[in-house]
Write a structure and sequence with these properties.
Strand order of the largest sheet of chain A: 7-6-5-8-4-1-2-3-9
Largest interface: A-B, 79 and 91 residues
Number of helices of chain B: 5
Order of helices and strands of chain B: EEEHEHEHEHEEEEEEEEEEEH
Largest sheet of chain B: 7 strands, parallel
Shape of chain B: globular
Distance between the termini of chain B: 52 Å
Shape of chain A: globular
Order of helices and strands of chain A: EHEHEHEHEEEEEHEEH
Strand content of chain A: 25-35%
Number of strands of chain A: 11
Radius of gyration of chain A: 20 Å
Oligomer: heterodimer
Strand content of chain B: 25-35%
């Protein structure tokens, strides 16, 4: 029996989930998304060869894989990529006549693309997402915050930047039943020119800055310091040392 | 040089060490570049007479100007920080200070806010950044070794950077700061509720680097690394504890386990 929602705005029976795949490390997003709805795996690449990560996404349960290709992505920054992804999501939604319910991104490394896509789509975003589930017409989102887990309840659409190592999927053995769909910038009504100016915002390879760690006297000093930053469980006063 | 804006994070009502370190580095940059340093802090109400501890700490920590971002949502524990709750406040602070450089501690809250703020204003973004003066020149960099990246130092466009805990020192002074109060509101679509009892944050993970012991804490975001023992791994670490690496590692995990048990009682 379907769990159709009474919310007239959002139908969560088989919603559209967009998984933003930067590289193979983001593949667990497909498994997360498949538990929520029909997954469209989406990426931008600097060449038009079907991306191996997207092919892998199809074998792991994505219903569609879409690749936006242009050589310019070799040289632009996070915001140009996010702008393109946001335009691609709008394009897919227009074709399907439905909004995405959840956009999934990996929360690792710089972690800039997910929040920037949310900004371009004017959606809320949540980072450090450790788990997500559908409960009737809303989402229950568990976030990792330092040493604790926080649960948030809310209604989609939303962009969720997910903590990936803890959500490693089981790979499917079957070959992909569909192919990677290629999109060019023109189809998204984007010109190279409007992305070009983001080239100078991109950090370029350069000499590393020498740094020395903060040396602490003991494990307890480290634990106390990190507890005050909220990233280490706080000991109760008077507890064993 | 225009202005430098620091977003200050609080945990259990106290400014975090990472925030004060971020402010301290902003102070050093501000002095080197002739920039005004703004510290923005979110509070549920403006401090009353005799309640100016936060203001005193921010002034002593290097702020020229303090932006008190006052909104009823900020009365919640710091762990509820999301872009929905704090984004409008951050953008209000940006609008007032018009910074060339915004610095945010690379904590969970910082990650929640920094990249989105950068996208909102069209800024360049650096994660776990090095921002310092070298030979009278500003250095804006991120990454170590072959992954090192740099931005042009001229600050021709705004830059948002997160700074990891421990990389820089807090400042200590006796100056006073101007204070401006900004009333901000927010609409929340995601509301915190009690997490299930079974919910528990992942254990710290351990990685080995060139045979040396390097512990990665909050590894999902690469928040910080700790070198155990006096090793070459220190060059990759934010914190180091010198001594017997194996014993320190055991102690670190025992400390975490002990704290988790005490916290769950």
């Amino acid at each position: 029996m379907s769990e159709a929602t009474t919310n007239p705005r959002i139908e969560l029976t088989r919603p559209m989930i967009v998984a933003l795949l930067e590289d193979a490390r983001d593949l667990p997003l497909v498994s997360i998304g498949a538990r929520l709805g029909d997954v469209v795996a989406l990426s931008v690449r600097d060449n038009a060869s079907p991306d191996a990560t997207l092919l892998d996404a199809l074998t792991r349960g994505a219903s569609r894989a879409v690749q936006v290709s242009d050589p310019i992505f070799d040289s632009v920054d996070y915001l140009a990529v996010a702008h393109t992804l946001a335009c691609a999501i709008r394009h897919l939604c227009e074709r399907l006549g439905a909004p995405p319910v959840v956009v999934l991104a990996g929360d690792r490394g710089r972690g800039a693309v997910g929040p920037a896509v949310a900004e371009r789509l004017s959606l809320p975003h949540l980072g450090a997402v450790y788990g997500v589930e559908v409960a009737r017409d809303h989402l229950l989102v568990d976030r990792q915050l330092g040493s604790s887990i926080q649960r948030l309840r809310g209604t989609p659409p939303v962009v969720l930047a997910c903590v990936l190592p803890a959500l490693t999927p089981t790979a499917r053995a079957s070959a992909p039943s569909s192919t990677v769909e290629l999109l060019e910038l023109e189809a998204l009504h984007i010109t190279q020119q409007e992305l070009l100016h983001r080239r100078r915002f991109r950090p370029e390879p350069g000499a590393a800055v020498a740094s020395a760690p903060r040396v602490l006297a003991s494990v307890d000093r480290l634990a106390d310091r990190l507890a005050r930053d909220g990233v280490w469980p706080k000991r109760k006063a008077g507890g064993p040392g | 040089m225009a202005n430098i804006l620091c977003f200050m994070e609080q945990y259990e009502g106290e400014l975090t060490p990472s925030s004060l370190e971020t402010l301290g580095q902003a102070r050093r940059l501000g002095s080197g570049l002739g920039a005004t340093v703004y510290a923005a802090v979110a509070l549920d109400r403006a401090p009353g007479y005799g309640e100016d501890d936060v203001l005193a700490k921010l002034a002593a920590g290097g702020a020229d100007k303090v932006l008190l971002l006052v909104g009823e949502n900020f009365g919640q524990p710091s762990s509820t920080v999301t872009w929905e709750t704090h984004g409008p406040a951050v953008i209000s602070a940006w609008d007032v200070s018009q910074p060339a450089l915004m610095l945010v501690p690379a904590s969970g809250c910082g990650r929640e806010i920094a990249a989105r703020a950068a996208a909102r204003v069209g800024a360049a973004f650096l994660h776990d950044a090095f921002v310092e003066m070298q030979g009278g020149q500003l250095v804006l960099a991120e990454g170590r070794g072959e992954r090192a990246r740099r931005l042009p130092a001229a600050l021709e466009f705004p830059v948002v950077a997160t700074l990891p805990p421990g990389r820089y020192s807090a400042a200590a002074g006796d100056e006073e700061a101007e204070v401006e109060v900004l009333q901000v509101g927010a609409v929340q679509r995601f509301i915190a509720e009690p997490a299930p009892e079974s919910a528990r944050a992942p254990e710290p993970t351990l990685t080995k680097h060139d045979g040396h012991t390097l512990v990665e804490l909050h590894s999902s975001t690469g928040l910080l690394t700790v070198a155990l023992g006096k090793t070459a791994a220190q060059a990759q670490a934010d914190f180091a504890i010198e001594g017997d690496a194996d014993a320190l590692l055991s102690g670190l995990f025992a400390s975490h386990e002990r704290s988790m048990k005490e916290g769950s009682r």
